[in-house]
Design goal:
15% strand; YojJ-like (1; 2 domains
């Protein structure tokens, strides 16, 4: 007798949920980019192959199957930037986040950032805002971002308002790119950050803002931006960007972040 019932196991449900989660994660990270079109193109191609195979078209199925066979390599080539971003997120956002808490609990290691350092950063930002001096600063309490800092000029100097203003002065050789502040020290300047390709971002966002958003998507750092066009100060974390015009509010935001709230 023909069995009309399909056995559905717990492992099958888990399999479907994991695939759905993976698809959602991919969709979230390539939404608004050119990769989105490629993503739908790959899905459409795979669906067509399944239909052709089910219809019994052996020749066409065999030809399309050859492309499916090398599909993994094609996806790696087409999505190399997205795959790199995924690995950075996996490493920085999850692994190092957990390692940070492990170190604090096991060895009572705590990163402390002086109030004076926060004050110097805030003062520099609002002075640059008044003169419409563009700036891009990446802040972290303790996690190092060597792969990004290596693209710039190593400094390793104590945080000071005057030094930050000098770095971002428009005639300074270091004004392009980002400054990394780790703890109480300016570690590097003129660093190259990834840039968001999201087409849905407002047209008013320049390269600094797009870099801030992209950097906050792949790390847990707090990124501060001063617009060269308007002098507006913005802060960015977890892919979200917001304007701030109150020095006390900005100080509180920085304090909360640099206390270790990764």
């Amino acid at each position: 007798m023909l069995n009309l019932f399909i056995t559905f196991r717990f492992i099958d449900a888990l399999d479907i949920l994991l695939v759905a989660a993976l698809m959602y994660f991919l969709f979230k990270h390539i939404r608004g980019t050119v990769g989105m079109n490629i993503f739908f193109g790959v899905i459409a191609f795979y669906v067509i192959w399944l239909i052709v195979k089910a219809s019994g078209m052996m020749l066409l199925s065999s030809i399309l199957g050859q492309f499916i066979g090398i599909g993994a390599l094609m996806i790696i080539i087409l999505f190399k930037d997205e795959i790199r971003q995924f690995l950075i997120v996996l490493g920085n956002q999850y692994f190092f986040k957990r390692q940070h808490y492990k170190l604090e609990k096991l060895f009572n290691v705590k990163y402390t950032v002086a109030t004076s350092s926060v004050t110097e950063i805030v003062n520099a930002l609002f002075k640059m805002s008044e003169t419409k001096t563009g700036a891009l600063i990446v802040l972290s309490a303790g996690i190092e971002f060597d792969s990004f800092m290596e693209t710039g000029v190593q400094i390793d100097a104590k945080v000071s308002s005057s030094l930050l203003e000098s770095i971002f002065f428009k005639n300074s050789p270091l004004h392009d790119g980002a400054v990394f502040i780790i703890g109480n020290n300016i570690r590097a300047a003129k660093c190259i950050l990834p840039t968001s390709k999201d087409k849905s971002l407002p047209a008013e966002y320049g390269m600094r803002h797009r870099s801030a958003i992209a950097m906050s998507n792949v790390t847990n750092a707090l990124i501060l931006v001063v617009s060269e066009e308007t002098g507006t100060i913005s802060y960015c974390q977890h892919g979200k960007i917001a304007k701030v015009n109150d020095p006390e509010k900005l100080s509180l935001i920085i304090h909360n972040k640099l206390r270790g709230s990764y």
